[in-house]
Amino acid sequence: MGQSLRLGPALCWLALSAPALADTSPTNENLHLDPAWLTLMHYQQDNLGGGFTSQADDPNFFLSDQGKQAPDRELEATLSAIQQPGSGDNHAQCRFPARTAWLSDQLDLSLPAVDCPAYEEWTETLNTETVTLVFAASYLNSPSSMFGHTFLRLDPPQDDDETNLLLASTISYAADAAAHDSEILFAYKGIFGGYPGITSVQPYYEKIRLYSDIEHRDLWEYRLNLTQTEVDLLIAHAWEIRDHNFDYYFFDENCAYRLLALIDVARPGTDLLGEVSTHAIPSDTVRWVVDKNLVSEVYYRPSAATSVAYSLESLPEAQQTLAAAIANGYVDPDAQEIQQLAPRQQAHVLDATYDYVRYQSEADGWPREFAAPLSHNLLMARSDIDDAPAPRTPPQPEIRDDQGHNTFRASISAGQQAHREFTELTLRPAYHDVLDPPAGYRPGAQLQFLRLDARYYTDNDELQLEQLIGVEIRSLSPRDQFFSPLSWQVGFGGRRTDTGDKRVLTPYLEGGAGGSWLLGNHLQAFAIATADLEIDDDLRRGYDAAPGADIGLLHQSNRFSFIAGAKTKAWIVSSQHRQDQVYVKGNWHLGRAFSLFAEFTREDHYDRYQSTWQTGLHAYF
Amino acid sequence: MKKLIAGAILLGASSMAFAQPGCGVGAMIWKGQSGIAPHVLAATTNGTFGNQTFGMTTGTLGCQTNESVQSMALYMDSNIDKVARDMSRGSGENLDTLAVLLGVDAADRDTFRKVLQDNFATIFPSSETTSGEAVDAIVALLEQNQSLSKYVAA
Asked: Which keywords are on file for this protein (chain B) (predicted)?
């Protein structure tokens, strides 16, 4: 402490006098408040007071000891440092090329020429002409993926056919989670901070391998319309933040957030970060980028799973059965059944089967002793067929992920429960339920966060919290002869529960698993075994548990979605009463911004029947 | 251009380092090597995405000083199953990537694809073929071809 007290005045003196020593002073004394400077340094205005704090959590990101909180000191220190004579990778000009370029431009500086071999080699190797924002869509069975993921691809000039985008480099920002951390610790640290965020550069084919082959996520590639100068600035800034720690938070300072900052730097005035309020959901961030007219072209790259499902579907039924038989080892790849097909059809069956076996090896862990020789035989047979056209790729979905409904939903409705009338207000910050407009989302997938339902009963002017959902995940993914995913659900929060004589707000935990089957184009049936746990003083023994079942039908289309079914729960600890329910819920979609909804539930509990109905409007924004 | 791409692929693999080119076992040493040579055909991965990506073994590659061939070997190492698939079909973006890495001119691309498809069984004699063995076989095949031999000349 004593030392820092003594050091303090000295540093202040140095910082204040540095510009004088360098014999250049800012022509604009408020330059440190220029939005471009604040963006370059990742300063955010403090909630209290008029100061600024940088989101960079690494002292080496700053040239002034007070840089984290003092935009002016940092600017002065930077000005002085970049004007120092000298050379080599440690020179401030080499460490901070974007700041150097901006300051030099603003103040019309004539800076000493500095050699930066490492930085020059880096930019030369990246050889970037355009930048593409890549969005990895969610995939059904992973809740953490449902928000999506984004990274940047640095595209080399496309002027000759030697260019191949698989080899292009990508920049991404991710939590550097220690491998041994448990899922729970991961979630905790991700939400409350504790992981350093790391910017990494990798070839695109590695990203494709991870997202498309292993995680089965479709990729959307949004080519940005940045000019060469803007691209250069983006690359320069990526260099500046590359090895520096920015604490990682799932909800706001996440993968998408840091990339937005890079784009903001590249095109000053864009202010994509200004759009971020409490959370930056990658699909939302893509929307902002599209809305700010930054996108020139969009390209769809289906995942391995999407492609294999499509090529199996496009086989005639008899050949689908044949493919299933080969994949399961009942028929050899060079068997008579295959040989009698036309070469083109043979190729199609072999291609689809190989892709399917490979998919199953990755996704379901088919044993190598079985899958590897089979794969090899399939490829050997396929290599004998010349001039067959390459498998057709799945068509681009009509509605892109960024064109789906917005994720914040507010609803107002009116209804009646056991002859008591109420008005209800619901707020749901994120993200999607199975009855929301399905376009741009995975069919059968639901992920709701922090949904709050408040009811006002008109008969006695009473305002009640009806339910507060912490997290609710549902994944209804149909099974067929090739794929057999598990349908499952999990959720927790607080909800009104019937104790026999009153409805009390009770913490709950629920889960379930089962299957789902496609009945028609947009219609599926599901059967789920469920389990519920409620804990509350008002329950006779303080808690209650119920095994149960939920069987129903789900229809999802761009006009109309409904779910209807029957639920039964056998409460076995406190109340020892069965709770049986039939329910119908329907949403009529008016474009992507509004839905009209209605729901009806009839319940038998404690030997009495009760009906609830409700109708209202959802607005998405 | 070719050099830049070769450079790009090396930059991506920043966790590894080349030793001096030369012959013999250990001529190419990969920092962070996992020790398992990737076999052809997915099944080894079991859906994990680990450090095996650059777990390349030596093979006879140590004698190859051609930088393009080394880049191709590196690419094959982490994409072997997709390369094998494209080769069996005689088309596909992973096969095109090999052509790019080797610097095969547009005029020779069809020959390149055809040679690799027709010799699939030579390149991948069994499901236990490693990517290093496949690279060696490809180099040997291309060396025998009049129009393609120039791309693999050491």
From this structure: Signal
Return d(Cα A19, Cα A108) in angstroms, integer.
15
Q: Do A156 and B87 touch (CB under 8 A)?
A: no
DSSP string, A60-110: GG-SSTTTTT-HHHHHHHHHHHHTS---STTSHHHH-HHHHHHHHHHHT--
Are residues A206 and B53, on separate chains, in Cβ contact within 8 Å?
Answer: yes
A363–chain B Cβ distance below 8 A for any pair: yes
User: How far is the C-alpha of B44 from the C-alpha of A46, rounded, in Å?
Assistant: 51
Whether B11 and chain A come into contact, CB under 8 Å, resolves to yes
Helix axes B131-144, B109-118, angle to 10 degrees: 120
- The alpha carbon torsion through A257, A259, A265, A266 (nearest 10 deg) reads -150
Segment A570-586 shows an average pLDDT of 93
Q: How far is it, in rounded angstroms, from Cα A283 to Cα A173?
A: 16
pLDDT digits (tens, 9 = 90+) for A582-609: 999 999 999 889 999 999 999 999 888 9
Return the pLDDT at B15: 33
Question: Is it true that the peptide bond before A359 is cis, omega within 30 degrees of 0?
Answer: no
Per the confidence metrics, is the pTM higher than 0.90? no
Rounded-to-integer distance, Cα A207 and Cα A210, Å: 5
Q: What is the DSSP string of A62-74?
A: -SSTTTTT-HHHH
3-state SS of chain B? CHHHHHHHHHHHCCCCCCCCCCCCCCCCCCCCCCCCCCECCCCCCCCCCCHHHHCCCCCCHHHCCCHHHHHHHHHHHHHHHHHHHHHHHCCCHHHHHHHHHHCCCHHHHHHHHHHHHHCHHHHCCCCCCEHHHHHHHHHHHHHHCCCCHHHCCC
Residues β-bridged to residue A223: A132, A297
Radius of gyration of chain A, Cα coordinates, nearest whole angstrom: 29
Is A160 strand, coil or helix?
coil
Other beta carbons within 10 angstroms of residue A276's beta carbon come to 20
**For chain B, domain boundaries:** 25-58, 67-151
CA angle A279, A287, A269 (to 5 degrees): 85
pLDDT averaged over every residue in chain A: 86
Rounded to the nearest angstrom, the gap between the alpha carbon of residue A129 and the centroid of all alpha carbons in its chain is 27
Residue ranges, chain B, pLDDT below 70: 1-65, 154
Provide the ipTM: 0.76
CB-CB under 8 Å, B126 with A206: no
* pLDDT at A333 exceeding the cut of 70: yes
Q: What is the pLDDT of residue B6?
A: 46
Asked if the C-beta of B9 comes within 8 angstroms of chain A's C-beta atoms, the answer is yes
User: Strand, coil or helix: what is A53?
Assistant: strand
Higher pLDDT pick, A152 / A256: A152
B118 to chain A, any CB pair closer than 8 A? The answer is yes
Per-residue confidence (pLDDT) for residue A15, from 0 to 100: 33
Q: What counts of helices (H) and strands (E) characterise chain A?
A: 16, 22
pLDDT band at A56 (very low <50, low <70, confident <90, very high): confident
Among chain A residues, the shortest Cα distance to B128 is held by A372
A565 — contact with chain B (CB < 8 Å)? no
Q: Are strands A246-248 and A295-301 parallel, antiparallel or unpaired?
A: unpaired
Q: How many CB atoms lie within 10 A of CB A471?
A: 14
Q: Which residues of A touch B53 (CB under 8 A)?
A: 206, 209
Whether B78 sits inside 8 A of A209 (CB atoms) is yes
DSSP for A361-426, please give it: HHHT---HHHHHHHHHHHHHHHHT--SPPPPPPPPPPSS-GGGS--S-EEEEEEEEETTEEEEEEE
pLDDT at residue A98 above 70?
yes
User: Which residues make beta-bridge pairs with A300?
Assistant: A220
